[in-house]
Design a protein that fits this description.
Layout lengths: L6 E7 L6 E7 H14 L24
Antiparallel strand pairs: 1-2
């Protein structure tokens, strides 16, 4: 079964700490976060995110 989303691993570490916090986010999470930031911070320019690309099966390179 193929996933229809991209999964990003986010690693957060603090200087002096012995551990790293890891979480996974989908591309949709970043689009939702941007929407919330635009609403919450109307005086700040939030850069746009790239347009979602086509699904993996739509991006296959045709056989030459």
């Amino acid at each position: 079964m193929k996933a229809d989303f991209v999964l990003f691993q986010i690693v957060s570490e603090e200087p002096g700490k012995l551990y790293k916090m890891r979480t996974y986010r989908t591309d949709e999470d970043f689009y939702e976060l941007r929407k919330l930031m635009v609403i919450a911070l109307p005086y700040v320019m939030v850069p746009p995110l790239p347009i979602k690309s086509l699904k993996a099966q739509d991006r296959k390179i045709p056989k030459r």
